[in-house]
């Protein structure tokens, strides 16, 4: 088989790229190891920057987001006894974020592909990118016991952190930067009314807590737990009791509790691979970088990669120019490092570290006092939260 672009991975990155290339008349095939139900079963975050919202508009998959998404003009930070509302709209000259689950974004992209019979091959095993350092790359895979090979011009690795694409790059050709945090986020999803109409990020002496939502009837909460915690050690009641403590008395009085429909622990890490291009192979999304979820940047960074990558490929076939391909890695990494910095800073501000110590504890407090007393500091936080320009 031959196509112009093979995309490995049918998560939000791979499907968004495929949709944008299709709308621009670029031929592509998506290879996904799992089945659609599994891809949709992974509960991920759900705060979309304006840039991501615009990308979904351009990809013609924004109808349901427009109907069911919740625009948010602000959120609350709570560190020790200081509570501060960050007025995103006021501080950024009118920008806000959209609360709409990543699972819903992926579902909308899947529906768009199904509607046009888009080439997404699920349950493709042993996917292997080949010869991407030469002019004739190809990808092999097995399906239903038969081996297949697709010749192409480019391979886009949108296969996440544990995917085959980055693993296929020779060691010497890639530099990896990583920071692993000594805790994880225990998250629950429950059909209860959110405690507030906006998100609350709280740093309590017991640890971090986040009150978020998927809709006005479906709430998403997180508490910080030590690395290695067994999710079975936390009953729903224990989680609700801890949330009441960490979110503060005001929220505790209002919080509605109920049975969890999903409960899981996610580790926290910062990770960047450099560069993101290896001949005819480009990495995008979690295949190239991971951020701790504290800044809600994971999905949005994947979208900005896809912005640069789709523009580069469309330019290559449309204007026969490789300029975008040649600058893809540098452009994407410039924005990635800023989002890494913001996500790291939010994580350092809002979590209890085992070895925090009195000085660092005062630094967290001083950071919060500065934020509460400085318009400039709040503008900086807000502009990063709503998303830096592409
Ligand atoms: N062959 C084919 N498909 C693969 C392979 C492989 N060897 N390895 C992984 N995949 C698939 C996975 O099954 C998954 O569906 O690639 C897809 C990668 O999707 P994601 O991990 O969701 O990565 P991405 O699309 O970049 O989305 C990034 O996900 O983790 C969140 O916070 C992150 O929001 C960000 C978003
Ligand atoms: C979520 O709703 O899952 C969520 C929101 C904001 C974050 C992280 C996760 O920073």
TrEMBL record:
GO terms for biological process: benzoate catabolic process. SUPFAM superfamilies: FAD-linked reductases, C-terminal domain (SSF54373), FAD/NAD(P)-binding domain (SSF51905). This is 4-hydroxybenzoate 3-monooxygenase. One of its GO terms (molecular function) is 4-hydroxybenzoate 3-monooxygenase activity. Signal peptide: none annotated. Keywords: FAD, Flavoprotein, Oxidoreductase. It is an enzyme of class 1 (oxidoreductase). Residues 2-343 form the FAD-binding domain. It comes from Roseibium polysiphoniae. Its EC number is 1.14.13.2. InterPro entries: FAD-bd, FAD/NAD-bd_sf, HB_mOase, RIFMO-like.
